[in-house]
Structures are given as C-alpha cells and as structure tokens.
Design brief:
The protein is mainly beta. Strand 2 and strand 3 form a beta hairpin.
C-alpha cells in the first residue's frame, strides 16, 4: 500500500513538472545573456521583479552625419555602453493569446542611458567626434524564437550631451542576435 502512495506521489510530481513547462511564462527571466550580431556586442538582462529588468549592453555603435559645408555625409563607428530600466507590460496578454513569452518576448517601455566613446573611425574633414552621453525614453519589443534567435527593436526621443552641444536626438535601435546559456 505504501508503494502505491509513493508511486502516486511521484507521478503527481512528474505530471506537475511536465505541465509547468507547457504553461506560458508570465514573468521575465532572472538572468539572460545575448550576443548581438548586427552591431557586435554582448547583452546581460537581469530581472529584478516579474515585469522589470535592468538591461546592460556593450557594443559597437554606428552614427551618421551630414555636412552642408562639404556637401557630403559620414558614417562613423564607436564603442558604446547602453543601460536601460525596462518594464514589460504585455506578458500576460501575450500568454493568454498563446503567443511566446519565453526569454522576455514582449513589449516594453524603458528609461535609457547611452555612453558613446570616442569614434574609432572618423573623417578628418569632420574632425574627431567627442564622447557623448544620451538619455532617452523608449518603447520597444523583443522576440526570442525557438532556437533562441532574437530580434529587438526600440525607438524614442532622447537628449544628447557632449562637450560642444546639447541637442535632441531620436533613438532608433534594431538588433539581431542569439540568447545564450540556459
């Protein structure tokens, strides 16, 4: 009789474990690492509550400027650090519709701070680009598909500060990458 109870108890645990894996995830992951391929870099996203994360990224950024004086444009590359406080607001809604929410697949709003280091590729006619700091309010979405292929897009208004100027700066970011680790 004791064996039957033990067997019933173990089967209940097994079925609950299998069922729990099929349930939609309605909270963010505690720790998530990504590799970005479009602009090479690494991302660590730390979930500190069910819907909020701290997103930390180190990557190579790109910029574009046009000079009316020379009537030409310039694309430049620079190392960049990006910190975001994200709030994922639609995880339950996505889960209720049967859509994927694993690996923080959802829409978010974020407060963001970027630090752009000295440019590593410049056009001597334009001079050297000074390091800058940008703060922004963003809206975006992140989707992680089977195989951990990751797409992310965010956009919003920002203010850029450098040693020469303070100016409005629209922020648009699109990344392609992979979630790594467990």
């Amino acid at each position: 009789m004791k064996k039957n109870y033990l067997f019933l108890f173990l089967m209940t645990l097994l079925f609950n474990g299998v069922y729990a894996q099929d349930e939609a995830v309605t909270s963010v992951r505690k720790n998530q690492f990504k590799i970005n391929m479009l602009f090479p870099g690494f991302v660590y996203e730390h979930g500190f509550s069910t819907k909020n994360t701290l997103y930390s990224e180190a990557c190579l950024g790109a910029g574009y400027r046009y000079s009316s004086y020379y009537d030409e444009s310039n694309v430049y590359l620079f190392p960049m650090i990006n910190e975001q406080l994200r709030h994922y607001y639609n995880l339950e809604k996505r889960a209720a519709k049967g859509k994927r929410t694993a690996y923080n697949s959802g829409n978010f709003v974020a407060a963001s701070a970027y630090y752009n280091f000295q440019s590593i590729s410049t056009n001597s006619r334009y001079g050297n680009y000074a390091p800058s700091f940008t703060i922004a309010a963003l809206w975006g979405f992140q989707r992680t598909y089977k195989g951990r292929f990751n797409l992310e897009f965010n956009v919003g208004p920002g203010v850029n500060f450098d040693k020469y100027d303070t100016e409005f700066s629209p922020i648009v970011n699109f990344t392609i990458g992979w979630v790594i680790g467990k």
